[in-house]
Amino acid sequence: MTEHTPGVPLGVWLADSPDERLIRLLERRPDLAQPPPGSISALAARAQARQSVKAATDDLDFLHLAVLDALLVLQADTAPVPVSKLVALIGDRAPKDAVHTALDDLRDRALAWGDAAAVRVVAEASAGLPWYPGQVVLEDSVTDPAELTALLETLDAPQRDLLDRLLDGSPVGRTRDAAPGTPPDRPVQRLLAAGLLRQVDHETVILPRQVGQLLRGEAPAPAEFTAPQPVVAAKPVTKKAVDAAGAGAIIDLLRELEVVIETLGATPVPELRSGGLGIREMKRLAKQTGIAESRLALILEIASGAGLIANGMPDPEPEDGPDGPFWAPTVAADRFVEAPAAERWHLLASTWQDLPARPSLIGHRGPDGKPFAALSDSLYSTAAPLDRRLLLSTLAEFDTGTSVDAAEASRAMIWRRPRWSARLQPGPVAQLLEEAHAVGLLGRGAITSPARALLSDDPEAAIAAMTKALPAPIDHFLVQADLTVVVPGPLDRDLAEELSAVADVESAGAAMVYRVGEPSIRRALDTGRTPGQLHAFFAKHSKTPVPQGLTYLIDDVARRHGQLRVGIAASFVRCEDPTLLAQAVAAPAVAKLDLRLLAPTVAVSQAPIADVLAALRSSGLAPAAEDSTGTIVDLRTRSGRIPVPPYRRLYRPALNLPNRDTLTAIVSVLRKVHDGAAGGGRLDPSRAIALLQQAALHQSTVLLGYTDAAGVSTQRVVSPIHVRGGQLTAFDTAAGRVREFAVHRVTSVMSAESG
């Protein structure tokens, strides 16, 4: 195949290719194998379809697309182009070896075909470019974006209107003002002189790619043919520091998630009719948990994706409020909180990685003017998991400890996936970085060791890496004179539960601070703990001497606690001190309970015991609940739980990729099938496309054999205009108008001039 010959069609080239190449093609373009093609001709036709070409180029990097761009500039979509011309056009912007490697990969994807001397590309190759052909290889890539921005700010209305029209539609425009001799004060000439338009010929101009990006408000995309590298700090972050930062982040996340689970269990949140949580409920939940709304949104989405919370009717059902459904923890949440920290991290991190939602949108208004609700389907995005995986894989390619900001990460990601550039701008990438830091996959701007293991799809290695990064649980704390308790690391789980029962979290972080107060001690006594147990607890686990003030506080609260005893009558209140009981009965908050004295030390009420306890406590008293034997009992409400939903909203690839054995079998069948072109039934579609494109290029007339939908075969004299999307657009001489013909119905193509 040379530049002076039409070359073999793609179908013939594929038929002559070894089985291994066909298998690689089906691996790289799985849509071609689903369903399996009936013949190699059908495979070739499917490979040249517009949508398939778009899918095949979706995961190509900038260099691959630049090579494709150069081939289109050389018109390789109509005739073979010498590889030497391709290399010469790219020049020193990329190493020759890299260009040849990219070209080989394009051949493996059947986006290009040919031998080592000359190559062709599919007719729909331009559909796979995120820019107009030539906007990369033919444009200057060294223009300073700041300089272009300054020029754009000086434009007058006619100039800006012209650029906006090119921005909204095709970047190519036809105008007589591009011709030589046009007055220089015309808008087109002024834009050409400023470098804000590029001249194609005397009647055609094009909007430069970089100018279009600035007009759309996008950051200038990479123009280098080699992958951009981040700016290395003078003192790189050490691997140990990165992993420690990631471990600290996951400790905070696990603690906050437990708070959310506990809060939703105690007070399930009603779901909106349209799905998700309303703004008011989000604000209330944020206030209850003490977690910022943006971070709470991320936690809720991850918890839902991991099956830790779900919508439904919890057991027990809420006694008052709306009828439901509600968002509440699932039964899996109880197993989750008991699991080791590293295993819990792995569940959350892998869920975040494949979460088909964008939590950063929550609270912002969508195109319809309504705010995005947490846990709603409006957040659904199949692209979100792809962006997260791209972020992690991009950072994993950098040296260990390389820290990047949003701008650097965005630039590197866009180079690797130019077709995704609209959603990989610095703003969205900054949100991805923030989320990745929150789930312990990044630390101080660099990827952590557990995150690298997570990318390898080895759960055991990832869990082991996080176990190594997490500090070992400790069994002690430091009680301060101001009754604060400093925890210098992650507590053993049982010890953490004991401490939470007698103290309240005052500040979270790597070193958590709790505060012991009268309400927290009363809460511990309400659960049946004795003053002696509390004294022993602090004495055993505090590395500092227990302050005398804490000892006095425990004894003082314990002395007053339980003097009033509330039981079931509906409720009864008993007290050894008649004066105290009389004070309780006379309290204003108790008046609505109709509490009356039966004896100097006993009073009864028809109100539930929980209401009596709440009213007495609001009056500054310290009652305790007891059972029929006089033993103090814990009357805290059991947390509601929902069964784990059978379906979890996680990312699932659109295609179930066939394994290599299946692909080998498909290729084997293709080899055995009697190809339609050899059987004489109908012209190979790839051959028909090649002949029709040649006719359109040379503006020649052909005799077209065609079979319509009814099976009627005719021959028509037509003048091809273009071939796109499997359709021939041509001028039908007999009909006297432009018509469209399905390429797969073409049975023959002959030159009309040669008879």
Note down, in words, how this protein is organized.
This is DNA-binding protein. GO terms for molecular function: DNA binding. Pfam families: Helicase_C_3. This protein has 755 residues and is α+β, with helices and mostly antiparallel strands. The chain has 6 domains: 10-128, Arc Repressor Mutant, subunit A (Orthogonal Bundle), CATH 1.10.10; 145-215, Arc Repressor Mutant, subunit A; 239-469, no CATH class; 478-560, no CATH class; 564-625, no CATH class; 682-751, SH3 type barrels (Roll). Helix content is 43%, strand content 14%. The protein contains 30 helices and 25 strands. The protein has a 5-stranded mixed sheet, with helices on one face. A 5-stranded antiparallel sheet has the order 24-23-22-21-25. Strands 12-13-15-14 form a 4-stranded antiparallel sheet. The model is unreliable at 674-681 (pLDDT under 50).
Task: Name some characteristics of this structure.
755 residues, alpha+beta, Arc Repressor Mutant, subunit A, 6 domains, 5-stranded mixed beta sheet, 43% helix, elongated
Q: What is the oligomeric state here?
A: single chain
Average pLDDT level: 88
Structural class: alpha+beta
Mind telling me the C-alpha Rg? 36 Å
Instruction: Report the total helices.
Output: 30
What general form does the structure show? elongated
Poorly predicted residue ranges:
674-681
Number of domains: 6
Biggest pleated-sheet summary: 5 strands, mixed
Order of strands in the sheet with the most strands?
A: 18-19-17-16-20
Compute the number of strand runs. Answer: 25
Terminal Cα span: 27 Å
**Strand fraction:** 5-15%
The residue fraction in helices comes out at 40-55%
